[in-house]
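Whiteboard transcription, Tuesday session. T.W. wrote the structure tokens on the left side:
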């Protein structure tokens, strides 16, 4: 079995804009290259928002050099960006945005969700891009819940939604620049499952609800993050109560990481160029009408 390298407790929360009360379960600054190609896992909620007149969220902001992956568990998000792409995602849907050479975008609660209020729960990942793709053209993928395979775990232990990569011969719909597995896992109380990822790939579990026992030893609670060794094959997960977690695995990108705010490049010179390009309007402007 794979060795557990660290279990990180839930960090303090903070707001992103006025619509995303998040805890950053994973960050490159905290866990370093052991979690490559993943740069960030922000867990927003679950939070109950009251009805309002004006949509909450994050206004126009830039990105370059990586990808954002937004999974809605509850609530709705309206997205638009400077390429003209966008749309609405709701429970179970995923938005995969390749910022690449540069994009300006915003993420807001939808008008219907704003009017009604309700439970809001979202996870956003930042996935690094290799140097060869950092200036690739921006791209937007909408992965609807109905298009994401649901695969039953053996012995009726629960299920896996395959967002990216492969589980049990079922491939997720996300198109990725490097080999990545993103599994949305639900494990029933008292059940145990054995999960296998490719050798040499990074492996992380982000616990979102319930409680897990890992490899018959360590207990993991809500909003904790488990980082595993890259070697050793399988892991064994047991649910102490009904549990949901994200399993993130991927081929590490063995390149320097230079990050400042919304820009992730290989050198600080490239980061400074990204900032200059943003200020000069190279990233474009948002369309007049939101998606």
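and on the right, the sequence the group agreed on:
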């Amino acid at each position: 079995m794979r060795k557990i390298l660290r279990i990180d407790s839930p960090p303090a929360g903070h707001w992103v804009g006025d619509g995303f009360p998040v805890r950053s379960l994973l960050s490159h600054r905290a866990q370093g290259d052991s979690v490559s190609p993943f740069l960030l896992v922000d867990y927003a909620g679950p939070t109950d928002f009251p009805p309002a007149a004006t949509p909450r969220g994050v206004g126009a902001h830039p990105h370059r050099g990586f990808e954002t992956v937004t999974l809605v568990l509850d609530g709705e998000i309206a997205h638009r960006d400077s390429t003209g792409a966008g749309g609405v995602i709701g429970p179970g849907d995923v938005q995969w945005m390749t910022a690449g050479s540069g994009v300006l975008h915003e993420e807001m609660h939808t008008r219907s969700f704003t009017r009604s209020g309700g439970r809001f729960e979202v996870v956003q990942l930042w996935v690094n891009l290799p140097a060869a793709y950092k200036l690739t053209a921006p791209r937007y993928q909408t992965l609807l819940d109905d298009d994401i395979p649901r695969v039953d775990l053996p012995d009726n232990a629960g299920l896996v939604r395959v967002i990216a990569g492969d589980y049990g011969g079922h491939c997720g719909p996300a198109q990725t620049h490097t080999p990545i597995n993103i599994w949305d896992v639900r494990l029933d109380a008292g059940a145990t499952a054995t999960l296998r990822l490719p050798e040499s790939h990074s492996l992380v579990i982000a616990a979102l609800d319930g409680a897990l026992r890992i490899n018959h030893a360590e207990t993991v609670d809500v909003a904790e993050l488990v980082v595993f060794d890259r070697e050793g094959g399988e892991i064994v997960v047991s649910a102490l109560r009904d549990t949901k977690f994200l399993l993130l695995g991927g081929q590490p990108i063995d390149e320097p990481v230079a990050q400042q705010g919304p820009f992730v490049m290989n050198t600080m010179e490239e980061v400074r160029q990204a900032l200059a390009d943003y200020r000069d309007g190279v990233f474009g402007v948002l369309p007049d009408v939101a998606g």
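Someone added at the bottom: The chain has a mean pLDDT of 96.
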